[in-house]
Amino acid sequence: MEDLARILQVQRKLGFKVDAWQIYLAAPAWLRDRVMALDYQDESDDDWEYAETLLTESLHDGGHRGNYFISILEDCNTRHSLEADFGAGKFLRSSQPGNIIVGDEEHVQKLQGTGPYHTFMIFIKKCVVDDFFREATQSDRGLPEHLLRMSFRDEKLSAITKQIFQHFRQPRQVGRRMIKEYLQNQILERLLEVSGKKVDRLTSDDQLQPTRLIDILDFMRAHCTEDLSLNQLAEQANVSRSHFVRLFRQTTGESPKQFLLKLKLERAKQLLATAPHLTVLEIARSCGFYDQSHLARALRQADGITPAVFRSGAFL
């Protein structure tokens, strides 16, 4: 009874949010019938898709969409292992929660198992993953084949995955795209570490050129209250997104996300000090924070004070 109650609780939580998921909408009826609950998330300008699912059994519709996928088993009600073969060799994933597999949609030879399975699924265009691996390792090889024939456990990858799902369920706010892209980079970097591949380390000479850095920082200052993306900043530097993050940190000592937060806080503090006619909520929203609680939390973490205390000048 406990297992059944847990499954029903997950089913109620997820509901059936599938309006935009073409994979599901195009699937045959027999396959859709195996989906007990589904929460699908995506961004129209993205090469990533996300689905938290509750399935009666494992499934694949035979479609070839050019994706790799990461499947993390959150919970299940079976003792039987999942049988998988993505063209690199057969293997089993046991029913222990936390087990992870990486699959290739174009080469599914077998994906068979009886649930129910509660899983977190991330679908990523193969070119995105392969290009990341090539650049990070300075080689001509993409995702290593051995990742496609193994089940593994990794607490960091599981935690980042759940974090990105939580991010999508938060109210939309300025900075949403950059946070999403930052988490996407973390997922790829963690896959690289799990694969055992060595990252091509930066040297002290690997930095953004001074003139280009000035242009990027000026761009960030001018647009810090907008929903900037890492892709926009990487284009300014004429490098890939993942390489830009590494170069920016190497050059400035902090991530683009951290630097952007500092810019927004500087603007908020300036308004708190010079614009008494504006409420804290108005200042928060004009500086790219979701609400006054969001601003208060960021200011407390950075300076240990609240907007009200800063505005009163009591901290001086």
TrEMBL record:
The keyword Iron does not apply. The keyword Flavoprotein does not apply. InterPro entries: AraC_XylS_family_regulators, Homeodomain-like_sf, HTH_AraC. Transmembrane segments: none annotated. Keywords: DNA-binding, Transcription, Transcription regulation. Pfam families: HTH_18. One of its GO terms (molecular function) is DNA-binding transcription factor activity. Residues 214-313 form the HTH araC/xylS-type domain. PANTHER family: HTH-TYPE DNA-BINDING TRANSCRIPTIONAL ACTIVATOR EUTR, HTH-TYPE TRANSCRIPTIONAL ACTIVATOR RHAS-RELATED. This is Helix-turn-helix, AraC type protein. It comes from Blastopirellula marina DSM 3645.
